[in-house]
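User:
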Amino acid sequence: MVHNVLHILGTAQLQGRAIASIVGALGRGLDPDRYRVEAWFLEGDGPLVNEIRAAGVSARALSWARGVRDPFGALRFMRSLRLGNWSIVHQHFGGRSVQRLVRLATRAKIAIQIHSLALEPGGEDIAEVSFEGYDVSIAVSAAVAERMRGTCPRVIYSGVTLPQVSKAPSHIASSRTVVGAASRLVDLKGLVYLIRAAASLANRVPSIRFEIAGAGPAIGALEHEVKRLELDRWVTFLGWRDDLGEILRNWDIFVQPSLTEGLGIAALEAMAAGLPVVASAVGGLPEIVEEGRTGWLVAAAAPELLADRIYRLTIDPELRASMGAAGRARVRQSFSSEVMVGAVTRLYDDLLAE
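Assistant: Predicted structure:
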């Protein structure tokens, strides 16, 4: 018997790609004789609809993002639910209003997956939210699981695909060192501290360069900080990029200076590409980065510590190479898409057997 699984997502714009990529990996990896995956985006249309379709997942865009404040959107959502024979609804977005309508319109089991420690844009702690009433809950890290009230979540790490080719040894020997970061440009990502670390490194390592890939509301403040510190020669904003794999091959060190982080998909992608990672010791990042083996962990909002660890990697290409290789091996063993698909399969099987 084939079970229909509906994934509920929020934005279909590019900033939602991390969660959409998880759903795409499940669509490709789950046994098609047992599970058929479909995805709905509740914040309207966007490029991720076609992107997830290209991954082999049926997808559509609805318009219901304001919960009880949009009764007509709720009605459209409920009517759409009734047209499908859903065995499982896997909720990545929305709260109790989504849960209640799924209960009213279907007989599906409901899984809720929490991807972060803070609810944006306000940054409210998930510890203030109750997750009672779901059939099963999923946390993307132990750090997230510890903060979820009224439930005993399963920890299933988000998986990434390992590129066939990792960091090129010829580039490691280059005289120029490129330090990269990739994320949405919001305050919670702590990129201002990377820029301040760059200020202390620019004169010590004249050949160093910093590249920041991403887009978001903090771009103006970050550009102002670069100008204030006179770092235009050293720091480049790449904008939102669809070719992160290509960019990672041009970088030597990856930095994730987040102030809070549910897991750290970008750090995993960098490790999969063979890069050493310097990250804040917050949220799920210590579950990814092995201190001294695949990279280093530093206190959040500490540019001087960031600068010290980046400097040590800058002057030691052999250390960069060994940490990068160890990180790639760690992703293959514990954080690959295949590992994630296996864990979700077991969860779905258990859920339907209850």
